[in-house]
Amino acid sequence: MIVTILGVTGYAGTQLLKLLLQHPEVEEVLAVSSSQNGKFVLDEFPALEPELITKKMQKSDKHIISMEKAVELKSDIVFSALPHLKSAEVLQPFYQKSIVLDLSADFRMNDEAKFNKAYGSAPLFPEQQKRAVYGLCEWFTEDLYKTNLIAVPGCYPTATLLPLLPLVKNQLIEGDIIINALSGITGAGKKAQNHLLFCERQENMTAYLPGMSHRHAYEIEEKLEEKGFVNSISFTPHLIPLRRGIFVTTATKLKSGKKQEDIKKAMESAYDKKKCIRILQQIPQAKDVWGTNRCDMSFHLDGAHLILFSVIDNLMKGAAGQAVQCMNIRLGLPETTGLPLNSPF
Amino acid sequence: MIVTILGVTGYAGTQLLKLLLQHPEVEEVLAVSSSQNGKFVLDEFPALEPELITKKMQKSDKHIISMEKAVELKSDIVFSALPHLKSAEVLQPFYQKSIVLDLSADFRMNDEAKFNKAYGSAPLFPEQQKRAVYGLCEWFTEDLYKTNLIAVPGCYPTATLLPLLPLVKNQLIEGDIIINALSGITGAGKKAQNHLLFCERQENMTAYLPGMSHRHAYEIEEKLEEKGFVNSISFTPHLIPLRRGIFVTTATKLKSGKKQEDIKKAMESAYDKKKCIRILQQIPQAKDVWGTNRCDMSFHLDGAHLILFSVIDNLMKGAAGQAVQCMNIRLGLPETTGLPLNSPF
Amino acid sequence: MIVTILGVTGYAGTQLLKLLLQHPEVEEVLAVSSSQNGKFVLDEFPALEPELITKKMQKSDKHIISMEKAVELKSDIVFSALPHLKSAEVLQPFYQKSIVLDLSADFRMNDEAKFNKAYGSAPLFPEQQKRAVYGLCEWFTEDLYKTNLIAVPGCYPTATLLPLLPLVKNQLIEGDIIINALSGITGAGKKAQNHLLFCERQENMTAYLPGMSHRHAYEIEEKLEEKGFVNSISFTPHLIPLRRGIFVTTATKLKSGKKQEDIKKAMESAYDKKKCIRILQQIPQAKDVWGTNRCDMSFHLDGAHLILFSVIDNLMKGAAGQAVQCMNIRLGLPETTGLPLNSPF
Amino acid sequence: MIVTILGVTGYAGTQLLKLLLQHPEVEEVLAVSSSQNGKFVLDEFPALEPELITKKMQKSDKHIISMEKAVELKSDIVFSALPHLKSAEVLQPFYQKSIVLDLSADFRMNDEAKFNKAYGSAPLFPEQQKRAVYGLCEWFTEDLYKTNLIAVPGCYPTATLLPLLPLVKNQLIEGDIIINALSGITGAGKKAQNHLLFCERQENMTAYLPGMSHRHAYEIEEKLEEKGFVNSISFTPHLIPLRRGIFVTTATKLKSGKKQEDIKKAMESAYDKKKCIRILQQIPQAKDVWGTNRCDMSFHLDGAHLILFSVIDNLMKGAAGQAVQCMNIRLGLPETTGLPLNSPF
């Protein structure tokens, strides 16, 4: 099986490269980058195991290659870690011939108006959108079996939706939903910008794009509404001085007449036998999912106030890991093939 | 003027020592610790300026001293950075003779039932409580002029109440208040505990004591209710891998019929000419108040959802700095005497 | 194959548990701790994969167990991550029946006088010492095949010796050796001590136990002398605010008449086909070996001054990883079985 | 007194701004930046105290200004935090009219050949060089009184030279000097470069430009040679994941016949009554000088091996703080006027 990664030099792209080189079913990896085209893979990524590169990057002779070269070499699977409003465009040569997993937002949303609000533009390929499946694996497993276009969810939506969807689906909550999300700095991408420098983030924290200003807010809203949610959400992300991790604290209210036991049952029934989800008695910690494809979650009831906690590694279950999980499902492999669930941290 | 610090080896006590040694009106500082009694101050605190110690710690011959010795030496002002349910007891010899500033929770709450819920015990000295003034400086300035017992507020309540009080007082919000607070690790105190080790907190984050489980939730609730708040709060603190800083994100709803302009006016009118408060157009950042006695705040309106942001240095405006500000007010000094407002970070 | 880990709750012991649960040849793991005896493994280590525990910890019914229980259950392999001067003693019941890998210093040194200088005591079992093999895998491979007692090297000695030994062996350097080692905080162990708190180490760095004050200095000296080194070393370790990693900068002098090419040849010839060693053109970085069992190294010649750089993950190649590598060699398995060489960082 | 800061947006320039706004003898500060010209000072530096800006930045109406405007407004003192090979050029309009303190390397070195090796260019203004005084305050006090051109030393040279100069001057050491320096990331400047991103430096460390590849090596060498040093140095800097701080470990040999007491005496005699230098019994820690203008140092003798430890805050005694100390000396003020010696950390 030949897989291609577009945009391999960003944090999500690099994580994909690490995972796919180690994946037992992947025979060949093509690493594509317009800026690093022609460079030796090991020079760009000295953290990789040389032997894996030698073994699985033969077609490119261990080099980072261009889009043109990748198209020419053909792939069974293509992952794109390119920016939104660019990814869907660049992916065009692959739609007919490969299974495409797009980690950008370009195919995540079915509601064109919401997409427009979030991204300031109409979706690029509304026709393609119809066949796209939203790759939140635990909720769209059936659809993932048969699609060739998978929209891998955003990191914030993944961490936020996983504890909420069972409650919304079972109509256990009422009123608005207040979402506070804390993100490690890899979530902001690998950009040479002043505010992402070590010296600007160490011993610092802040919120950004509150309310409905962040693009992911609309993605969260749409997926909740598709399950019957009728009220409003308020989503506030924060930048926290760690490399990896998203910790989400969601406050809402238990529906009158419902009980703690109902929440427990809804969660357990949604995630029974789901290996990437763990429902804990205690509040989860970022370090326990670091480097894994797992989402740990717990909930706390205080009178009618219901507080949900969920934590993921933003580069794993929040991006590259979930993308590989989608691929595994699509190919009929066990869904955690090649995915760490044991934190190396 | 002679000042005494009880519990000088904790983070708040040490910060008090730094501030008071530099305070232009303080002539002599007595540093008290039961565990480090007899040790040279400079050996315990090598970050201090030797010359200041030589100049202002003559009575103790530059040593950390015992309670007994401190009582014997007499003080104009006594600060206690001892734990709750111990502080009020240990302070007994000073109530009649000195101005007492208690950084513990022992005199913060007027409602005995709430205190009991928060601390699992009745207040130790209900009689003393009557003369205690809550040292949230910008709101109790008048009372501070004339009391000899000041209860310095908790770090979370300070950061939470400052943006909320003007809105509650002016009846600009309705419904419940959802408070998410992020705290640096000094907020957990200087305790040799496994979960506070560098290797347990680096690249980690979590919430703890959610809903109304944290003691400070009741302190916040009481002070809001005293200004007319009638609904419920939900308070969730988080541990963030930085040394200093509290960042609070508070979500509530604008009262029907009220406008953005009303909030702005209420905030500006509450804090006009208050040098330790700054209302910003953009979301505040922890690094900008690091080492200062300032609270920076901003608000964001998204439909009816109102989000408040506030940030303080938990050891300064959240503890030692505010204690010194209280002392300054009590003594009729300019309130920022000896207090940095310019971040050294 | 049944393996036992003594002292599983420290950082090295926990890392062993992670590695051995994932090791393809290990069928059953016994986790021993006197302090946490009786606790569920997943409660103590929530970062582990539940399924692995279920599968490979059946004999202990997924619990941490006592020494007595471990002795009773028997093991093919026993790892000890206990402290020096205690480990050799506690290991007694296993010497005759199991292959023993001791991560403490108790069997690392052949020279009793040096051991005494380093540990302030004579070796506990001088007779056992004779059959112990020093587990610096790349240098003692042949001996590792046939021993049942392996002394896994210290973290500093591993990182220091790997670049030095080829040069000493080939008589390429002259004069003294100045070693500066930087260590992440896990190197200091998981002890609830004030100086290891997050707030004491963040934005801090220092040296400790310089010259020949650190125990590892004698271990380094002995192994160099065994290869013919006749001058003196000076070893200074430093504490650096990161979790994992040892970076060693070693300064010495190129022997008169020798050339850059000689060093390159000696290094390449020593480590040709050694999968855990990589000789780089550029200076290595800690993040590139994070979580791997690899030592990356490079050298720099400036006139006669020769500077060697080497970096390892102190919990992997510096402790648990190298212990597993030793086990693999002893058992005739490929030496990197179950050992990551691809950094997850 | 009017002071101007050229290059105010870098880390050293910003630190100068903080210090000078608080300096009791400075009446007016002009902040110059070509990239941020025209911006409100408080918008660029929200960590500053608004009142200080209002009070001391009247001539620029609280704005960042251009070079042209600064020349027009005239200054008593001009600090330049511009890059080397640019600073001396830009400073031209001020040489005749103001006291100039250049934080760049342009006037630090008297030996043109060495300058050439270090900076790949001849000095820009060899004539000016003759009147320049090297601002290592404790060693050039007398010369500082009477010069109008001060070359503020580099951060590494300051930390390295302070413990070494008394030993070289008194001929107490022999052989080569091996210098290992650890630097916080502000030392690399405020540049939007990938390798300075939070996510590239967190949990990472490395060396760079070893041997004599770093420019500061030549500055160190020259100043040692001027005091009689005849052997060679080897200087290796390292990047450490903290914001501020330089920790230097220097290894050399005690001259035959000399004793520990001689070193102690030489150091004490050099720094007797120097308020910015502290000689400690124990190894210094970065956190104890954080935010101060102090250099803490200690030494350790192990046989003939002599190890020196020194630590500074690279933005204070390593840059802006030392520049202000130079200014104080030049103006006949107490040398620590406006300079913190009490760490706020």
The gist of it:
Four copies of one chain form a homotetramer. Chain A is α/β, with parallel strands linked by helices and 345 residues long.
How would you sum up this structure, described in words?
4 copies of one chain form a homotetramer. Chain A is globular, with a radius of gyration of 20 Å. Chain A has helices at 11-22, 41-44, 50-56, 67-73, 87-90, 112-119, 126-131, 141-144, 155-169, 198-201, 215-226, 260-271, 286-289, 316-331, and strands at 2-6, 28-32, 77-80, 99-102, 133-134, 149-151, 173-183, 206-207, 233-239, 246-254, 277-279, 295-302, 305-312. The two termini of chain A are 31 Å apart. In chain A, helix 6 runs antiparallel to helix 11 and helix 9 (155-169) packs parallel to helix 11 (215-226). In chain A, helix 8 links the parallel strand 5 (133-134) and strand 6 (149-151). Chain A is built from 14 helices and 13 strands. The mean pLDDT of chain A is 97. Chain A is 33% helix and 21% strand. With 345 residues, chain A is an alpha/beta fold. In chain A, the strands form 2 sheets. A 7-stranded mixed β-sheet of chain A has the order 8-9-7-10-13-12-11. A 6-stranded parallel β-sheet of chain A has the order 2-1-3-4-6-5. Chains in contact: A-B, A-C, A-D, B-C, B-D, C-D. Chains A and B meet through strand 7, strand 8, strand 9, strand 10 and strand 12 of A and strand 7, strand 8, strand 9, strand 10 and strand 12 of B.
Largest sheet of chain A: 7 strands, mixed
Sheet with the most strands: spatial strand order of chain A: 8-9-7-10-13-12-11
Unreliable spans of chain A are none
Structural class of the helices, strands and pairings of chain A?
A: alpha/beta
Mean pLDDT of chain A: 97
